[in-house]
Design a protein that fits this description.
By secondary structure, the chain is an alpha/beta fold. It has twelve helices and five strands.
Length: about 350
């Protein structure tokens, strides 16, 4: 049997672990208590990752004993049980807490430091009509579900989200998203596009986060003068502004993995489904995020210790090249692997 852990089992186990921190086992002391709330939420996370319906997920769990074992299920829940749980009040706020708990799984408890975060918003279609049908029928989409994100640029993990209806000014829900993100991260730089050219948002970044923010300023007057205490600092584009495109990569990944068209019909369920897809992808991304975080920390140590290169264990090196792997491990402050003892 392979020692590699199955991806779906890892997603289910992680969903169970973070859900227990955010939800009570049961919604009411006198509920039937056949399934816990973390178990039902983990089922919804699997549903979003696999692009299944409620009935399809129940059929899938019926023939997957390892998945049921990973979630502690002794029986498969009925599809109406999952649907009613998804329609319960307050589930969007629970998914916000699950997203924060996922970030703490990587960075540790409390508010962790981060180099760069990016903020942006995307839309999810609230219907299945194709673009070809809409163009031939002369119809246009008048509104859609808008999801605003803050994402860690290094690990491409969503930190906070806000779901509402679009179209609209993307800067309107931005302050709410930043306040949610401030519970788990304290970044050094915040990147946004021109839609986030707002003095209020820049003030939050500089005063609350003590972070440098940048959004391309919009010239609202005929003169080239950019007014505002913090907006006036946006005259020159920073060197690392290209890292903002990380959030665009997150949009693409969520829509490719979980889909871009929502299947729900009610307004409440549309928002819950959109938030569920973001949380489900964040849990899925957790598997590789810790490896990326380890590499980024090692590379940061490497840059800080480049001046110590002549002091490496192996002699006669130049600062422009690394001749042995021990030098790389030394500069990154990663202990080398211990030699294997041959079996007798």
């Amino acid at each position: 049997m392979s020692s590699h852990e199955n991806n779906l089992i890892a997603i289910a186990s992680t969903a169970m672990r973070v859900s227990r921190r955010c939800m009570k086992p049961y919604a009411h002391p006198k509920s039937p208590q056949r399934f816990t709330q973390p178990q039902l939420l983990s089922c919804l996370v699997l549903k979003a990752n696999l692009k299944l319906t409620y009935r399809g997920l129940c059929d899938f769990l019926e023939v997957s004993p390892p998945l049921r074992e990973a979630m502690g299920l002794t029986q498969t829940p009925h599809y109406t049980t999952l649907q009613k749980f998804a329609a319960s009040d307050g589930l969007t706020e629970v998914l916000d807490a699950v997203l924060r708990a996922t970030v703490r799984e990587i960075n540790g408890p409390g508010v962790s430091a981060a180099e760069d975060v990016a903020i942006d918003a995307t839309g999810m279609e609230s219907g299945w009509a194709s673009a070809h049908y809409l163009s031939r029928s002369g119809r246009t989409r008048s509104r859609w579900i808008r999801v605003s994100f803050i994402v860690l640029c290094a690990s491409v993990i969503p930190v906070a989200m806000h779901v509402d209806w679009g179209p609209g000014n993307d800067a309107a829900p931005a302050l709410t998203v930043m306040q949610k993100a401030a519970r788990v991260v304290s970044p050094e730089r915040v990147w946004g596009d021109a839609a986030y050219d707002s003095e209020k948002l820049h003030a939050f970044c500089y005063e609350n986060w003590k972070a440098r923010s940048y959004a391309p300023p919009i010239l609202r007057r005929r003169s080239d003068v950019v007014r505002g205490r913090y907006r006036s600092k946006m005259r020159r584009r920073p060197r690392n502004y290209g890292r903002r495109w990380t959030v665009e990569s997150l949009f693409s990944a969520i829509k490719r993995v979980c889909g871009s068209a929502l299947t729900s019909r009610g307004e409440h369920m549309l928002k819950v489904e959109a938030a569920l897809r973001v949380a489900a992808y964040g849990i899925r991304r957790w598997r590789t995020a810790w490896i990326i975080d380890l590499f980024n920390r090692a590379f940061s140590n490497f840059k800080q210790n480049c001046s110590a290169l002549p002091l490496c264990p192996s002699n006669s090196h130049s600062t422009s090249a690394l001749s042995t792997s021990s030098d790389i491990l030394y500069l990154c402050q990663i202990p080398p692997p211990s030699p294997r003892v041959p079996s007798s």
